[in-house]
Write the structure tokens for this entry.
Amino acid sequence: MTTTTASVTAPVSTRVSAPASAHLLAATGRVLIAAIFLLSGIGKIANPEATIGYIASAGLPFAPAALIAAALIEIGGGLALIAGFRTRFVALLLAGFSVIAALAFHAHFSDQNQLIHFLKNLAMAGGLLQVAAFGSGKIGLDQR
């Protein structure tokens, strides 16, 4: 005699939704992650000569264009992340930016300060990948 078992899955309507506090935590997390990008982008605009020199010292070409691109990504991405606008895409963009910046500017592992900055960038990318995976929560423009 052979018996079979069927797997049972709960219908979508009976799934438990996230508590309201989870959406507030998601929004707060987006603001905290975005803050470093906003401040960094504003700092680049406030002192462009120093930023261009730093980019050039890393051996990257087109330092003035890289300054403009970085400032746009950091400020635009930071504001979009706070607003919850195209959150998943913006989080992926900022995660990629963080990894590229880590590799281009902080890969001198013999210098402990550079290693800390490298790991900080990777940690930010990890948090942003979580945002990309799970979205903005209910607080944000994506939900409108």
Q: What stands out?
A: The helical segments are 20-46, 48-57, 63-83, 87-105, 112-134. The mean pLDDT is 91. The chain has five helices and no strands. The chain has one domain: 24-136.
